[in-house]
Amino acid sequence: MAGRTVWYPGHMAKGSRELRELIKQLDVLIEIRDARAPELSASPQAKELEKMRPLWTVLSRRDLADEEITRAWVTHYRDQGRKTWAFSLLQDPLGPLKKELASLAPPHRGVRLAVMGIPNVGKSQLLNRIMGKHAAKVGALPGVTRGVSWFSSKDGMIVVDSPGILDPKSDPQVHRMLAWLGSSRSDVVGSFEILGAELLAFLRSRDLWHLVEATWGELPDPMDSEEDDLSRLGRRLGCLRKGGVVDRGNAGKRLLDGFSRGKLGRISLESPDSPALP
C-alpha cells in the first residue's frame, strides 16, 4: 500500500523558521545539493534566502554522478553568477571553498555561515570538514540533525547546521525521485515496490538500462517474459516468497539501496539541458 505523498515532519517546519530568523547574523549561506540531481535536490528555501544573503552551492556526491554532466552543472550555475563547487565530501580537499570563506571574514570576527539543504545530501559531512573536527552528528538516515545548532572552529569561524528541509508543496513525483537518492523516506512517500518500478522505468527511458544489467547480470528480454522489469530483477536477486512468487517490495528495496549508494555506477538523473521531470 502506498504511503503519504510527501515527507515533512514537524522539525523541518521549525528548522525552516529558525533559519529565516537568524539570516541577518550570517555572512553567507552554503547550500548542498546532490550532484546526481542538482535541481531536484535544491532547497525550497534557497530562492527566498538568496535575496537576503549570498548563497553558494556545493554539489555533493561528485563521485556518484556522471563526471561530464557534473562539470556542466558547475558551469551552468557559475554562468548564473553563483559560486559553485563539486566535491566528494568524504575524500576531496576543500581548499578552494575554505579560501573563499576566509576572504569574507570582517576584521573584528570570524566569518559566519549556514550550511543548508534537503535531508541526507551531506550537510553534516561538509560542516565537519569545514570545522576540521567532528562537530555534528552524521547518519545514513534522512533528518538526523534536528533544530538549528551553532558550531565554532579554532580559527573563529561560526557555522550553523540546520535540519534537512523538503518542500511539502512540491510534486509527489519529486519526493519519490528524492527517495531514490536517499533524501526522502521511501517507506513514507510511496512503497518500495512503486519506487523500484518507477526507478527502473526511468533508467530505461534514459538509456541507462545497461547499468542495471552490468550490476546484476543480463535479464530476460521483456518480450520473452510476462513479468515486468521489477519482477524479473527480483527473481534474479532471489527475492522470492513460497511458491517462487517474487517479493516485489524486497526487490524494490534492494534496488533503491544499491542505487542510492552508487552500486550501479556513476549516474546523473538530470543535466542542465535535460531535466529529470518534463
Q: Label the CATH architecture of the largest domain.
A: 3-Layer(aba) Sandwich
Please identify the top-level CATH class of the largest domain.
Alpha Beta
CATH topology of the largest domain: Rossmann fold
Count of domains? 2
Could you please describe the fold and organization of this structure?
By secondary structure, this protein is an alpha/beta fold. Strands 3-2-1-4-6-5 form a six-stranded mixed beta sheet, with helices on both faces. It has helices at residues 10-21, 46-50, 67-79, 95-102, 123-131, 172-181, 186-189, 192-205, 209-216, 229-237, 248-260; strands at residues 28-34, 55-60, 84-86, 112-117, 149-152, 158-161. The protein folds into two domains: 10-161, Rossmann fold (3-Layer(aba) Sandwich), CATH 3.40.50.300; 191-260, no CATH class. Strand 1, helix 2 and strand 2 (55-60) form a beta-alpha-beta unit. Helix 8 (192-205) crosses helix 11 (248-260) and helix 10 crosses helix 11 (248-260). Residues 1-11 and 136-146 have low confidence and may be disordered. It is 38% helix and 11% strand. The chain has eleven helices and six strands.
Question: What's a concise summary of this model?
Answer:
By secondary structure, the protein is α/β, with parallel strands linked by helices.
Topology:
Layout: H1 10-21, E1 28-34, H2 46-50, E2 55-60, H3 67-79, E3 84-86, H4 95-102, E4 112-117, H5 123-131, E5 149-152, E6 158-161, H6 172-181, H7 186-189, H8 192-205, H9 209-216, H10 229-237, H11 248-260
Parallel strand pairs: 1-2, 1-4, 2-3, 4-6
Antiparallel strand pairs: 5-6
Helix pairs in contact: 8-11, 10-11
